[in-house]
Each structure stands twice: as C-alpha cells, then as structure tokens.
Amino acid sequence: MVRTIVQDRPTRTLPANCDVAILGAGMAGMATAARLQAQGMATVVLEAHGHAGGCAGYYRRRGFSFDVGATTLVDFEPGGVGAELLASVGMPMPDAEALPGYVAWLPDRVVTLYRDRAAWHAERLRALGDTTNHRAFWAFLDRLASVFWAASRDGVRLPVRRLDDAAHNLRAIGLRNLPLARHATTTLGDALRRYGLRDDAPVVGLLSMLVEDTVHSTVDRAPLINSALGVTIRGAGLSRASGGMRGFWRPFVDHYRRLGGDLRTNCPVERVDGTAGAFLVHTRRGVLNAAQVVSALPASSTARLCAATEERLAPYLRRDSDALGGALVVALGVPECEVDGQAFTHHQLLQDYGRPLGDGTNMFVSVSAPGDTESAPPGHRAVMVSTHTELASWEGLGAEAYEARKQEMSDRLIGLARRVYPMLGEHAVVREIGTPRTYGRYALRPRGAVGGVRQTPANANQHAVPHDLGVPGFWQVGDSTWPGLGTVACVVGSRIVAARALRSGRRVR
Fold first, then answer.
1. Could you tell me which of 52, 80, 89 has the C-alpha nearest to residue 249?
2. Of 187, 214, 267, 429, which is least surrounded by CB within 10 A?
3. Cα dihedral 492, 494, 495, 499 sign
4. Which bin fits 452, alpha (ψ -120 to 50), beta or left (φ > 0)?
5. In sequence order, which residues have a C-beta less than 8 Å from that of residue 103 and are 6 or more positions away?
6. Does an H or E element contain 369, and which?
C-alpha cells in the first residue's frame, strides 16, 4: 500500500491559541472535536496524515476508494450511538446503505447473520442447533446485549472514577438489570461452559470469528458483556456510506469546519508541555497554545509526546505490551463480473475449527455496492479482504523477506476469498496489501498495532486506560481507553471526554 496524501486545504500558520487541541483525526478525535466545537469551544485538530480517518480512514488509487480499517458505520441510525453524535453536532446522516447483514462461511456450513432480529433468531437455530441449551444460551446472550447496548447509547462511563460516574451508570443500566453487572468478571467461554456448549464446534467457531473482530480476543479470554455486544453488533445497524469511509469523512470534516473547527493535516505533533490553561503543543509547523488537550492517539504515543502522562500510563503499557495485534488488508479494484452472484456484499470466512485465528483463518471480505461510483469507476467494484495477524511475524524481516511475505499473504487471502467469489482478483486493476508496517508508517501506530488491546476481564471496562490521566486539562480518548467495538467505542468515548472537557473548560475560564 503506497501513501496517498490528500491535502484538504493549503497549510497555514497555526493559530496563536485555542480552547482544546485534539491530537489525531481518527473517529475518536474528530467526534470529540466536533462535539466541543458545537458547544462553542474553539478546537484545533492536529493530524499527521493527509486527511482525517485514522484507522477508520481510506485511500484513493486509480479511481477506487479503499477503506483501510473499518468498512461500515455501526449504530448510526435513529436512537443509536452514531446517530446521537450526528444529532449533537447538528449534522444529517451522510448518504449510506443500511446493510441487511452478512454471511458467515464456516468450514462445514454457511450461516446468514441477518440484521433483522426474528430472521437471525430462526437462522441460528436452523444452522447451529435447536436444543434446550442452544435456546437458553442465545436468550441469555440476547438479554446481556439488549441491556448493555441500551446503556452504551445512554453514554455509560467506563472506567468508573467518580461517584457521579457510578450514579450515571446505575441509571443507564437500570436497577432491575444491575445483577447482570456481575458478569463483568466472566468470559464468553465461561458462559458457553455453563450451557454445555464449549465443545460445540460450529457455535464456538462462529463466536470466535465475531469476538476476534470486535474485542480482538478469544472466547476463553473475551469479557462476556463485551462479547455479547460484539456478537450482536450487526443488529445495532451496519451502514456503508456511498464511497465507503471516504463518503463519511468528507461531509463530516466539511461540517466540522462549518462549525468553525480547524483541522490541520500533515501536521505531526512532536511534544506537549505545560499545564491546564497553558499547554504548549509543539508541531513541525509551529507551537499551539491550548487551554486543554485531548489525545486520540494510542496510549503509548501519548506517553511519548507528553512526559507528564508517562508515569500514569506506564503500568497500563507494561500490562498490555503482549496484548497488541495487527491487521492485513488486501485492497482490490476489480471488474464487476468478479463479484457478481452474491446477495450480500459482506462476508466472513473461517477456514478451520481447530486452527488459531489470524493470517486468513478468520477473514472478512467487504465489497462496495453495485452502482457506487464514489467507491469504484463504472463497471468496477472496490474489495477489501482483511484478517488479523501477529505483530512479531512482521518484525525483523529484511526487505526481500518482507516483500516475499507480503506476496505470500496477498495470494493466500485472495485464494481463500474465492470460496465466495471464484474469479476474484483474476483481472484486478488495483491489487495492494497493507501490513503492520503499513499502519506503522502511514497511521503512525506503534509497531503497527491496531484496534486497541486484546480484551480480557483484567484490562477492559473498569480496568481500561482511564480518560483522565491525572494531568488536569489533559484527556485520553479512543481505542486505548475503550478497546474493541471499533467506531462505537470511539464515539462513546468521545461523548465522555467532550462532557468532561466542557466542564473543565468552564472552570478554566
């Protein structure tokens, strides 16, 4: 994958000061900035790349627009987390297609993960088993998901740091549902064993795929409540903007600027000094004075850039150093005939019930919609094939070995995707692969890690990296503080941080 820089506007001298400087223009950073700007605070977003998006971004090549991480918007429909964000900043929903679901291709069967609840309930019993234990397990997971999706939409605050956080969460969860909070310390594997399904290969295989993609963990390590949300994420509503993530980011950035916000691209941050009311944000293009700072960068980058946060973040970084993972994404621009014949445009494939996930064993295929000429030239479609990968397997490779491994994994992923699209890639106009090195180079992700840490009860929820790092006026937001669940977690985190920065800003003034 080759870097493509789109300069949104000519670079100008940085303003002398602002109320809040936001480091990073990914989903969490831009959502926080837009919320604050809509409330009358002067914000400046500093982004090292050529445009907004981060690991939910995109790049352009030969008339195609490829998503580099997230390919869908989650819960952006009325009542959802994303819809609340847009309403809070006064922005209409961009042109997008509501996906009816997607298809899971297991080693021995195909399961359609319908968005419609009734259709999904019938499908899972048909395809995965209709015993008393199956029904009881799914009912239990449904109840957890229903309660905690509602709590997320009500702005649940994690980790709890103050009494008002606890009071807010109690209202969000509801007194009647409070006993469910005891499951915060258990795993999805515990629940499967409770219902006698831990050795049910198809059920466990499907759940393994879904929790790896949402909480980046395994069934025996993934927190149960987080898993319930991840497994039901399509039921919250998946949408794909016309043009993919580019079709979301362009109108969002335009709206932010109409609010008076200032996005500075190609402007890497070098360090942050100072205290509340008088932070100095040093960049390659000058120094910005900010009353407050929000870092939407990975926690390790925050600690490196702001020495005042290093001591507070150090225990979390040590704890999570072995819990980081990477991704591979093959971007294909293909003639439309290569992806004809499927009712759904999104597919997830599991190759083997017994093999560890990653490097193609579990992979996701996302295809742009027919007629979406914002994503691909007429008569063509944009295809993204993605999988998780271990960071260590891409480290220490010489140039020749690295190129050989890229070619090997590109061939493997395309070959496996041909179970769904037999002709895929035969006449590709564009064929490129992004690796952890790509994310490290272009998204400035340390070691190329993406998606936050692999969640366990020991590092998620109450044990996650806090938004308040002990430095007054300095906040952390993004997948470091609420790992997994992609754009949902980033949007929920932006709501928490924006509210706290707003209150803090009033005190500073």
1. 52
2. 429
3. positive
4. left
5. 110, 111, 112, 113, 342, 344, 346, 347, 348, 420
6. none
Q: What is the pLDDT of residues 413-461, one digit of tens each?
A: 999 999 999 999 999 999 999 999 999 998 889 999 998 899 999 999 8
Cβ within 8 Å of residue 277, ≥6 positions away: 291, 473, 508
CATH number of 17-58+81-96+243-321+453-508: 3.50.50.60
Residue-wise pLDDT for 342-381, tens only, equals: 999 999 999 999 999 999 999 999 999 999 999 999 999 9
Q: Over the range 328-363, which residues count as b (16 or more CB within 10 Å of their CB) and which as e?
A: bbbbbbbbeebbeeeebbbbbbbbeeeeebbbbbbb
Q: Please state, in angstroms and rounded to a whole number, the distance separating the CA atoms of residues 492 and 178.
A: 20
| C-alpha Rg value of the chain to the nearest Å | 22
Q: Where in the chain is the domain with CATH 3.30.519?
A: 326-448
**Residue 327: beta bridge partners?**
388
Widest pairwise Cα distance in the chain: 66
Name residue 150's amino acid. Answer: A
CATH 3.50.50.60 residue ranges in the chain? 17-58+81-96+243-321+453-508
Task: Please state the pTM of the whole predicted model.
Answer: 0.94
Cα angle at 379 between 376 and 383, to 5 degrees? 45
Q: Does residue 92 sit in helix, strand or coil?
A: coil
Asked if 324 and 440 count as a contact pair (C-beta separation under 8 A), the reply is no
Please give the Cα distance from 46 to 261 (Å, whole number): 11
Q: Residue 292's beta-bridge partner residues?
A: 20
What is the sign of the dihedral through the CA atoms of 228, 102, 206 and 53? negative
CA 276 vs CA 20, 32, 272, 290, 505: distances in Å: 10, 18, 12, 8, 9
Nearest alpha-carbon partner for 485 in 180, 83, 75:
75
Residues 482, 489: Cα–Cα separation, whole Å: 6
What SS3 string covers 400-419?
A: HHHHHHHHHHHHHHHHHHCC
Dump pLDDT digits (tens) for 64-79.
Answer: 999 998 899 999 988 8
Question: What distance in Å separates the CA atoms of residue 61 and residue 70, rounded to the nearest whole number?
Answer: 18
Supply the CATH classification number for the domain 326-448.
3.30.519
Strands 101-105 and 346-350: parallel
